[in-house]
Design a protein that fits this description.
The protein is mainly α. The chain folds into 2 domains: about 10-100, Orthogonal Bundle (Rna Polymerase Sigma Factor, Chain: A); about 105-190, Winged helix-like DNA-binding domain superfamily/Winged helix DNA-binding domain (Arc Repressor Mutant, subunit A, Orthogonal Bundle). It is about 70% helix and about 0% strand. It is built from 9 helices and no strands. Helix 7 packs across helix 9 (about 165-190) and helix 8 crosses helix 9. It starts with 8 loop residues before the first helix and ends in a 7-residue tail after the last helix.
Length: about 200
């Protein structure tokens, strides 16, 4: 279960400042655990190996600590981490001599579960499974874009830069994803008939 607390851009800037200026290990730990799972999921979509994805993400996050004095030179730390993980994952993929060309259709995505308390109070377990199933049935590119936008909270512009696609494509893919999820939910909600 994903129990990460949402870190606002201001919180992230404060964490970044604490790490850079005071070598604050507690702030680094907060940064590490906040980003580890979503970055690992993103790396896994490229590498298709949980173990190697964990190594790649750990290496990127350890590099942040080793270069902590220059950390304030990074304008958008969240985007920097995603791009670093993408590049490191692609380099590792090359090292493994699998392929240098990568299509979004070849990527696999894992979704972290939502807050269990919210699931318990807002929707039934059965409905949550139907939503997860609807998301899993999306085409690969659509699923990746949906995950980056809705779960990892990346902006369209950031996703476009990360995946090397247009913002319009992201908008279209998210629209498609939401329509397909809504269609699954509409067929699973049974309304009482009035006799």
């Amino acid at each position: 279960m994903d129990k990460r607390r949402i870190i606002s851009p201001n919180d992230l800037l404060e964490i970044q400042q604490s790490i850079a200026d005071y070598e604050d290990a507690a702030a680094y730990k907060k940064l590490f655990f906040h980003f580890f799972l979503p970055l690992k999921s993103f790396s896994f979509s490229i590498l298709k190996s949980k173990e190697i994805a964990e190594e790649v993400v750990s290496d990127v996050l350890i590099e942040i600590w080793s270069k902590r004095r220059q950390l304030m030179e990074i304008e958008n730390l969240k985007m920097y981490l995603y791009i670093s993980v993408r590049n490191a994952s692609l380099r590792r993929l090359q090292q493994l001599q699998k392929t240098t060309m990568l299509s979004l259709e070849d990527l696999e995505v894992e979704f972290a579960s939502a807050d269990p308390n919210a699931e318990t109070y807002l929707i039934t377990n059965e409905l949550a499974q139907k939503i997860d199933s609807a998301i899993e049935s999306l085409p690969q590119q659509c699923k990746i874009i949906f995950k980056l936008a809705k779960q990892d909270n990346l902006k369209y512009k950031e996703i476009a830069q990360l995946l090397n696609i247009s913002v319009k494509t992201i908008d279209n893919q998210l629209s498609t994803a939401l329509k397909k999820i809504a269609a699954v939910l509409n067929t699973s909600v049974k309304r009482p008939s009035s006799n």
